[in-house]
Design brief:
single chain, 5-stranded mixed sheet
Length: 134
């Protein structure tokens, strides 16, 4: 497995996914891209709903795509808006990413990749529940 992350490829895929977003209410399309543990590049986009709370973020869409493809983990993600600006995942999305990327997941950031553990310190994760469930 190639351990190098080509951030330009991930950013390009995230920008492609912006074009597929369904954002008629906010008019703020967002795209996300991730590289799987196997090296495959997957994408996701935000999908809004007239009942705002039912919409899903691009990162959640990405993880749904990952799982639907029979895969379970990503090594790195990039998120972009319609102007190509790199976005940081919200708290909810960081928690979803933790489930499928772990604390060492690399998240694109304008100042350089950041570990998810640094963006979501002291997160509650699968290891925590494993400690109390027999």
């Amino acid at each position: 497995m190639n351990t190098e992350i080509d951030w330009n490829v991930l950013r390009h895929k995230a920008n492609e996914m912006v074009l597929r977003a369904y954002a008629p209410y906010s008019r703020y399309p967002v795209g996300a891209a991730g590289i799987t543990s196997e090296g495959e590049i997957l994408g996701g986009c935000n999908v809004e709903n007239v009942s705002y709370g039912l919409g899903i973020c691009a990162e959640v869409s990405l993880i749904a795509h990952l799982v639907s493809q029979g895969q379970r983990s990503v090594r790195a993600v990039s998120v972009a808006d319609a102007n190509g600006k790199v976005l940081m995942p919200c708290g909810r999305c960081r928690q979803v990413l933790l489930e499928h990327g772990g604390r060492e997941l690399l998240v694109d950031h304008p100042a350089g990749p950041r570990r998810l553990a640094d963006l979501l310190p002291d997160a509650f994760g699968p290891d925590d529940i494993a400690e109390v469930v027999p």
